Amino acid sequence: MKPHPRIRKTVKWGGAIVAMLLVFMWLGSTRHGLLWRDAAGRTVAVRGGRFIATQCAADQGGLIPIDWRDSPAPYELDFSFSWTLDRTRGRTFLAMPLWAPMLIAVAFSAAAWRFDILARRRERLNLCPKCNYDRVGLSPGAVCPECGTRSASRA
């Protein structure tokens, strides 16, 4: 059996790993959060199932792990998108729930898994990889009579 294409394999496994990491971050952020502030006043946080980014007045920098059990509630997940731009005070606020990128990662990974299963099935049943033509009776290196594609299993 010919090895699977690298791109499909990378998307398949990479998407599954990213989706699992986002699930753990989403569920884990209900008990604990992570906050990072830099000297320019930018703040990035993961809390309550959301990714939060703000820009405001300058503050102290550094990576600060924070236990969010007292703020606002230990198991409260927030599913909403928020975006605020206040030019008079120079403040920007963006909050995105982690389920949104998780859903995208799951969709791409599921599609890659499906395409990989179809490609392996076509190869196993000796079908043309492009048009699904039954290649029984053709030599292994022959071109498909329907679409002109070479066989995946060359001699």
Report on the structure:
This protein is an alpha+beta fold and 155 residues long. The chain is 32% helix and 22% strand. Strands 4-1-2-3-6-5 form a six-stranded antiparallel beta sheet. Helix 1 packs antiparallel against helix 2. The model is unreliable at 59-71 (pLDDT under 50).
Helix content estimate: 25-40%
Got a strand count?
6
Stretches with pLDDT under 50, minimum 5 residues: 59-71
What gross morphology would you assign? elongated
Instruction: Count helical runs.
Output: 2
Q: What order do the strands of the largest sheet run in, or round the barrel if closed?
A: 4-1-2-3-6-5
Cα separation of the termini: 12 Å
Mean of all residue-level pLDDT scores: 77
Radius of gyration: 25 Å
